[in-house]
Amino acid sequence: MPKMASSIPDEVMMNAALIKELADVAKDEALLQGVLMRTKETPNSSELVTYAPFTLFPSPVLKPVFHQALAVQTHFNTMVDKISQDTDFLQEALASTIEVDDFTARLFKIHQQILKEGRSQSIVLGLNRSDYMLDQKDEKTSSLKQIEINTIAASFGGLSSRTPDVHRHILKVSGRLEESRRVLANNPAAGLARALAKAWELYGSERAVVLFLVEEVQRNIFDHRYIESELWKRNIPSVRKRFDEVYQTGSLDPDKRLFVDGKEVAVVYFRNGYMPQNYINEQCWDVRLMMERSRAVKCPDISTHLAGTKKVQQVLTRPGVLERFFPERPEVVQQIRATFAGLYTLDMGPEGDNTVAMALAEPDRFVLKPQREGGGNNIYGSEIIRVLGAVKGSTERTAYILMDKINPAPVQNYLLRRDAPLVISNCLSELGVFGAYVRQGEHMVMNECVGHLLRTKSSEHADGGVAAGVAVLDNPLLV
Question: Which residues pair with 95 in a beta bridge?
Fold first, then answer.
């Protein structure tokens, strides 16, 4: 397995006293810069906060690969938006999944109801994050491979706007002035807020608010607060509500305008509702339907949520499918397709049977993915044999897709998290790229790449994000 050189020389990495001192400085700097999370003991109170977990040093990322990921983002924005408008495609792509996956089926039912009634809002707002790893099978070749695209509740645009200064400071203190100048500026919060503001403005009511639909447990509130703060700078009011609060005080008027707590809602920004356990009762589903039926701009609307499912991701890798969305644009198709890893159907029939056989024969080559967001759901190695072995002959297998396992080269770093020992780790990084777009009717008003996110985890951990407690925040140092 090739190793990627750390951005920091060994005499720093191996000097225990220096590392301890740098870690203390780093934690203070993170608190000074507002890289914050609430504690797991008191997740709904800001009386006590801690630093969000992060790496001591920024991690090396190959410059051409980084720029490739940024360059393709506006095309992914366009693709997601086109899929969301292609009713027949969504129906065909998800047909087998909705038979066996209750959550996707419920979302799809709302989608069908909206189609039947007709959409009451022509403004569409998309804030997404496309996640990649660098596949380094050998020393010579490395290629950017997409893990997934998150079309709902894509997080860390706020906190990742605050981490560059932390790493610049640490590099200066450790005597690496030249490297500290190379830490990239990054402000996804501003870009995400710009798109929210544009949708709010197009909605056209100065008194209307942006509603953040939030979870019961809000450890990661500061990540949201940066975006709220950018909206308030523009004098755009925002409110935070949970499903149950919207259920109690929300209603539609005869023109389908959404009111919550007496305030008209211009934009619903979902930071919740992306996984089954978010819908703790039927009332949550009623609220989701009410919001979807309303004239408020939804981020995302139900069809854009469905466009981000793993099944759609797998169907997009089939020959000729991208061309459906980009006819006459072979260069765009090529740019997008270059980032696809091998994805395989588990639908019933010979092709799905082949996938099963392939996975059972060489499980270490693959990842088995259910239709879920939020990290910590994927299945690896011998677990694949256990899970697939149990469902291989039944339609239950169609709730999953199979994907080639991506093999990034590990890099040494220190992961700083509360109550964890300070030890050097072999780390793997995942690069996220934030996209933001606004469409009104046929007209694309805004389509941008608005920043990036690097998350790093110890190579012992197969799966999981920062909020899931496995990965930590990082910055790329381009090499």
Answer: none
Give the residues across from 297 on adjacent strands: 267
In the set 29, 179, 292, 373, the catalytic residue is: 373
Residue with tokens 């211009």: 266
Tokens representing residue 35 in the block: 């890289």
Helix, strand, or coil (residue 38): strand
Structure tokens belonging to residue 404: 């080639």
- Rounded distance, CA 155 to CA 72, Å? 20
Q: Tokens for 199, please give them.
A: 């949708």
Q: In the annotation, is 150 catalytic?
A: yes
**Token pair for 240:** 């935070």
CB neighbours (10 Å) of residue 319? 7
Query: Among this protein's residues, is 228 annotated catalytic?
Result: no
Q: Tell me whether residue 148 is one of the annotated catalytic residues.
A: yes
Catalytic residue among 241, 369, 397, 405: 369
Q: Which residue has the tokens 């949201």?
A: 224
Q: Which of 148, 215, 292, 430 is catalytic?
A: 148
Tell me the pTM. 0.96
**Does the annotation count 82 as an active-site position?**
no
How many angstroms separate the CA atoms of 11 and 216, rounded?
A: 46
pLDDT at 137 (0 to 100)? 77
User: Over the stretch 69-84, which tens digit does the pLDDT of each residue have?
Assistant: 999 999 999 999 999 9
The pairing of strands 263-270 and 209-213 is parallel
Residue in 150, 161, 238, 425 annotated catalytic: 150
Which one is catalytic: 38, 77, 126, 129? 129
Q: Is 129 a catalytic residue?
A: yes
- Residue 461 sits at φ, ψ, to 5 deg, of -95, 120
pLDDT in tens, 233-277: 999 999 999 999 999 999 999 999 999 999 999 999 999 999 999
Specify the pairing of strand 343-344 against strand 400-404: antiparallel
Is 310 an active-site residue?
A: yes
Residue 468 pLDDT level (bands cut at 50, 70, 90): low
- For residues 399 and 96, is the Cβ–Cβ distance under 8 A? no
Closest C-alpha among 274, 297, 278, 293 to residue 372: 274
Residue 119 annotated as catalytic: no
Of residues 198, 310, 405, 439, which has the active-site annotation?
A: 310
Interstrand relation of 258-260 and 263-270 (parallel, antiparallel or unpaired): antiparallel
Tokens of 271: 């930071």
Q: Is 216 a catalytic residue?
A: no
Q: Which residues contact 261 (CB under 8 A, 6 or more apart)?
A: 239, 241, 245, 249, 250
DSSP E strand stretches across 112-163: 123-135, 143-150
Q: Which of 55, 53, 10, 8 is nearest to 427 (CA)?
A: 55
Q: Which of 168, 295, 298, 455 is catalytic?
A: 455
371: amino acid identity, one letter: Q
